[in-house]
Amino acid sequence: MRSARVWKRLVGVDDRTVIEDVEFADNDDTVVVHVRPRRPKRRRCGLCERPAPGYDGGAGRRRWRGLDLGTVRVELEADAPRVACREHGVVVAAVPWARHGARFTRDFEEQAAWLATHTSKWAITQLLRIAWVTVGRIIARVTAERGAGVDPLAGLTRIGIDEISHRKGQRYLTVVVDHDSGRLVWARPGRDRKTVEAFFDALGDDRCERIRLVSADAAEWISDVVAARCPNAVRCMDPFHVVAWATDALDEVRRATWNDARRAGQRAVAKELKGARYALWKNPDDLTDRQQAKLADIARTNRRLYRAYLLKEQLRQVFAQDSAHAAIGLLERWLAWASRSQIPAFVKLARTIRKHKVAIYAAVSHGLSNARVESLNTRLRLIMRRAFGFHSPEALIALAMLNFGGLCPPLPGRLTAT
C-alpha cells in the first residue's frame, strides 16, 4: 500500500482511523480495507462513546460496506471487541467510521438517506445494491442521530394538526407542522385523542402555554385536546375543510336530483347530471368549454341544483376576501341564505358551520389555514408510494422527517445539505 492518505480519502475515513492493509477479494470484485481505530478512540461504548474497560473479543473480525469505488465494492474490515459500559452494559465497541449496530459506513448511510429524499426506490436499490428494507433501517439510524441534538418543538407558536392515511385498513399518521417555518415537527401513528395528547406531552406545559394559534379540521379528538392543553391558543377552523363540506353538500344534491330523474324515466337528464360532477365541483376559472356549457345548461333546466352550486361558490368566496370584515359579513349573509334555501343538505351545512363559527372567524381574522399541512400531506403521499415495503410506520416517519423536518444530511464530501 503506497499511500494511506489517498486510501483514507477514497474510502471516506478520517484521522481517527488507521488503515493497515488493502487487498482485493471475491475475484477482484471487492476491495477489502483493513482498518482499526486510533488509540484514543479504542475501547469506547458503542452507544455513549465513553471510555469503558474491555470485556472480550466479541465475534471476531467484522466488515462494514463502504461507498463503491466506481464499479468495485468496498468493505472495511476490523476487529469488533466488546466493552463493559457502566451505563449500557456489555456492548460492541464504537468505531469512528460507522454508527453503532450498522453494517455500513457513515458515508454510505448518509448517501442512502440523501438518495431516499431525492429519487425513487428502484434507483436507490439498484445504485447501492441493497434491499429497500435495509434503506428503511438506514434512514431510521440517520434520522435518530441527526435529530439527537435538535429540538424540533422549540419556539412553536402557530401549528397545524392533521391526519393522513398511510396504509390500507384505517391506518393513519397524525402530523404537526410549524406554520412559521413550514417544517414537519412531529408525527406519530394513530388518529385519536391519545395521539394528540402524546404531542402535547412531548411539548410540555410551559411550551403549550406559548402556542397562540392552532389550525385543524373540525375533528373533536383534536379540538377538545387543544382546548384542554393550550389555554392561550385560538383554534382556527381550516377553510379548505369548510369548502369541502359545501362540495359534499352540492354532490348530495346532484345525486338526489339524478335519482329523481332516473326514477321518473328521464334517462337523458339523468345521464347529463351524472356527467356534470366535475363541472359543479371545479372552480369557475378552471372549467373547460364543455364544462362551462354543461353548467349553463344546468342553470337553464335545474334551478335547484344551480342554486346549490351558487351556495358552494359563495362560501368559497368567503375565504377569498381581502379583509376579515368583508369575509365575516359575507359568511353571515351566506348563513342566512343557506338556512332559508329549502335545500336540506345546505340547511344542515349551515347548522354545522354555525357550530364552528368562532373557529372559522378566527381563521379568517388571522389568515391561517391548513394549507401548509395539506401541501405537506400531498408530498407525504408521494414518499409513501416510494416507501412501499417499509414494515413499520416509524421508518416512514423517519423518511418524512428527513424530507420535511430539516434533517436530510448532505452528500458525502459536500459541506451543506441540498
The amount of beta strand, in percent, is 15-25%
Globular, elongated, flat, extended or rod-shaped: what is the shape?
elongated
Query: End-to-end distance, in Å?
Result: 35 Å
Number of strands: 12
Largest sheet: 5 strands, mixed
Helices and strands, in order, run as: HEEEEEEEHHHEEEHHEHEHHHHHHHHHH
Count of alpha/pi helices: 17
Give the % helix. 40-55%
Main sheet strand line-up = 10-9-8-11-12
Low-pLDDT runs: none
Instruction: Write down the overall mean pLDDT.
Output: 87
Structural class: alpha/beta
Please tell me how large the radius of gyration is: 29 Å
Count of domain modules: 3
Task: Describe the protein.
The chain has 418 residues and is α/β, with parallel strands linked by helices. It has three domains: 1-103, no CATH class; 158-238 and 370-386, 2-Layer Sandwich (Nucleotidyltransferase, domain 5); 239-366. The chain has 17 helices and twelve strands. It has helices at 4-11, 106-118, 121-128, 132-147, 193-203, 205-210, 220-229, 239-263, 267-274, 277-281, 289-301, 303-318, 324-339, 344-355, 357-366, 371-386, 393-404, and strands at 17-25, 30-37, 54-56, 61-69, 72-79, 82-85, 89-92, 158-167, 171-178, 184-189, 213-216, 234-237. Helix 11 (289-301) packs across helix 12. The longest helix has 25 residues, at 239-263. 35% of the residues are buried.
